[in-house]
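Pilot study result, target chain (439 residues):
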Amino acid sequence: MHNHLIAKTNHLLERVFPEQRLFLRSEEGTRFIRLSPLTQALGWTGSAAFFAWSIIATAVLLMDSIGSGNLRDQAQRDKQLYEQRVQTLSEERDARTSEAIAAQERFNLALSQISEMQSELLASEERRRELETGIGVIQSTLRRTIGERDQAKGSLEQVLAEARENADNAAPGATAVASNATLTFMTEELARTAAERDKVAASAAEAEKFAQDMMYEARLKEELNDQIFRQLEDAVSISLEPLDKMFAKSGMSVDNILGQIRRGYSGQGGPLTPLILSTSGGAPDPDTERANRILGELDRMNLYRIAAQKMPFGMPVKSNFRFTSGFGTRWGRMHNGTDFAAPIGTPVYAPADGVVIHAGWSSGYGRLIKIQHEFGIETRYAHLSRMNVQKGQRVSRGDRIGDIGNSGRSTGPHLHYEVRVGGRPINPMIYIKAARDVF
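Predicted structure:
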C-alpha cells in the first residue's frame, strides 16, 4: 500500500519533475543515483522553505535595526527637548528672580521718596505757618498805623477847632502868634503823618512781594510734589499688579488673607501709618490724601510680601526635574497632587513657613511629611527617601526638609506634592504658576 502511494505520487509529479540520474565516477567504477520526482519535489520544497526563511529572518533583522535606530533617535530627541525645557525653566526662573529684585528695589525707592516727600511737606507746612505769622504781624502793624493816623487826624481837627475859638476871643497880636504856633504844629503833624504813610506803604509793598514769592514757591513745590506723586503712583501700581494677580489665582479671599496679616500688627493697622498734616482741624488737603493713598498701597504691598512667605508659592524642587503626573483623575482614581520626577536624593524644600504636623511612614505615601501653613493651608511630600524634620518642628521657606525617593506605592523615583486648603486637595500648579509670574 505504501509503495503504491509512492508510485502514484511519482507518476503525478513526473510531468513537473521528470526522473533524473546523478552519475558518480570513481577509480573503481561509475555509479549513479536515481532522483525520483518525489525526491526532487521534496528537495525543491525544502530549498524554497529555506530561502523564504532566510528572506523573512533578514527582513526581521533589518526592521529591528531600523526600529532600534528610531528609538535611539527618539530618545535623543526627547533628551534634547528635556534639556531645552530645563534651560527654558532656568531662564524663566532667572527672569522672575530679576523681576523680584527689581520690584524690591522699586519698593525701597518708593519708601525713600515717601520719606523725602514727607520731610518736604513738613518743611512746606512750617514755611506756611511762618508766612501766616508774618502776614499777621504786617496786618497788626497796618491796623496800628491806621489807628495812629486817625488819632493824629482827630488831634489836628481838635487843635484847629481850638485855634479858631481862640482866634475869635483873643487880640489880633495874640491871634497871629497862635496862628503861627498852630501852623507849626500842623506842619510837624503832617510831616510825621506823611512819614508814617510812606513807611506803611513800603511795608505793604514788601509784604505783597514776600507773599508773591511765597505763592510762587508754593506753586513750584506743588508741581514738584505732583511729579513725585505720579512717579510713586506708577511704581506702586507696577509693583502691585503682579502681586494682585498672584494672590487672586490662589483661590482664597485676598481680603481675608490681608486682614489676618494686618491683625498680627498693633492697633495701627499695619507697618505704615497715614500722614496727618492738617493744622486747622478740618479734612486733610489733597496732597495729604494722595500721600495717604500711596502709603496705603505700600502697606498692602508689604502685607503681600509677608503673606507670600506664609503661603506655598515656592517650588518644592529646585534641581533638574520633570513633571510626570498632574492633578486630576488617573487610572480611574483621583490623583490629588503633582509629581516631580528626579533622581533619588534630590533635595526637597519647604515652599513656605509652617509647622511639621507629620513626619513618618504612611501606607501608599511611603515616607510622608505634612506641613501646616497659615490660612488653613497644608502641604504634603510623599515617597521620600529621607526626612530631615520631625513632628512639631517649625520650618521656614527654603529649608531642606527631605530627599526624593521611591518609598511606598511608587513606580519610580519622584516627589508626590499636594496642597490642601481646609482639608480639600487643590491643584498645586495654581500656586506654582501664580508664583512663576512674580518670582
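One observation from the pilot: The longest strand covers residues 377-387. A full batch analysis is planned for the follow-on phase.
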